[in-house]
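Interim report to the steering committee. The following record documents the input for Class IV aminotransferase (262 residues).
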Amino acid sequence: MGDLVGARVEVDGRATTVDRLHAVAVGGYGHFTAMQVRGGRVRGLADHLRRLDAANRELFGSALDGDLVRRYIRHALADDVLDASVRVHVFAADEDGAVAVLVTVRPPGDMSGAPQALRSVPYLRSVAHIKRVGDFGQAHYRRLVAREGFDEALLTGPDGVVAEGAITNIVFHDGTSLVWPNAPVLEGITMQLLERALSTGPLPSRRGPVHLSEVGSFRAAFVTNSRGIAPVRLIDDVRIPVDTALTATLAELYGSVGWDRI
């Protein structure tokens, strides 16, 4: 719950109390989505709402009203914030299955676009398809690789199978198409939007197995999350070519995605 520090925080559309925050923060059972808001709009709003609804049905056995979530976000943004980093967390509110919706509003953020260095770690998230709170291993390895001078942890499984970054998706270019690892991952909203944009363009995109032993054979690699897209320059001690033309193409594709009013 580190994102609560310095953030505007509301629970169920109301300014919250310390007791209420404590009740939802310490439980650790819940899910969330993260988005960048610009001018009161967000890319892939319907995808964010579908993610929240699907996770809520799986974790709590009930639908989550997308219009209600939108109202909570608008209320937290109020009239004074047009650009922001917003997270919508959903927690168990009581033992009867009711949920609480916590919205945090922080200053906007973007990926710098600078090529990133990734350090592989032997870790895969459990229940990887749900964006959820409280994953100790994910946070631990992010901190560990940062202390070693890397930008992101690359999560890997048995036999060096590549899955995802700690807070990113990763995609490789094999010279012909973009390859998203088909290991269990959280399908990020930016990943989903890019796959959709790529499906109508000249650059093929597919899912397939990727192993650490072969990352040096790829022509380029990129990480994506709610803050954008960045090329990868290094995985462990393997240098990855930075394809500036392809970087620009992906940025243009992502930039062509429309913004939805919250």
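The chain has a mean pLDDT of 92. The committee is asked to note this result when reviewing the revised timeline.
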